[in-house]
Amino acid sequence: MRADANASHLVAGAAAPSSGAGGGLRGLPDTSTGRPPLSGCRARAILDRVGDKWSVFVIDRLGQGSHRFSELRRGIDGITGRMLTVTLRGLERDGLVSRTIHPVIPPRVDYELTPMGLTLLKTIEQLIDWADSHVADIHAAQTAYDARHAPDPLDALEPPGQGDPEIAACEAAESACD
Fold first, then answer.
1. Which residues have a Cβ under 8 Å from the Cβ of 69 and sit 6 or more positions away?
2. What structural domains does the chain harbor?
3. Nearest Cα to 111, choosing from 77, 64, 51?
4. What is the pLDDT along the chain (178 residues), one digit of tens a residue?
């Protein structure tokens, strides 16, 4: 879910830095949205947090109510204890999750969404619903892409430059210079 830092300007809708007014990467508002590009504002850090794969699952799970750490870990397939700890701490720091320690033996800690976290829940649910409803479409697109971009097994049998006329022309030009 995270975009490559080098491609962050693409998220903002800019193809290249702009020196003119109205829409570049230098903190000027994007004229199409009236907002600064995401790569240059504090919203970027927040989107990195809430767009993180584990944060999406934690927020979704906590949308069902308060949970203990062990319940969250069992309920989120593939998450490690360390990653769950890091994710919960980050969400708590951002004010999206609250942590309640109950004074009992053994200690009991519950996590739940804060009122601000609850405002994000509907968006997270929509994102998960969208992903669930498009699994087959995305798989079909991936299969079609892979078929179009699969390496030709015959290329492995040919010496370099034999199959591609452009490569052959480049190699011929290099030989002529020698």
1. 84, 85, 88, 109, 111
2. 1-41 (no CATH), 50-133 (1.10.10.10), 143-177 (no CATH)
3. 64
4. 434 333 333 333 333 344 444 444 444 555 566 666 656 577 788 888 888 889 999 999 999 999 999 999 999 999 999 999 999 999 999 999 999 999 999 889 999 999 999 999 999 999 999 999 999 999 999 999 999 988 877 666 666 545 566 666 666 666 665 5
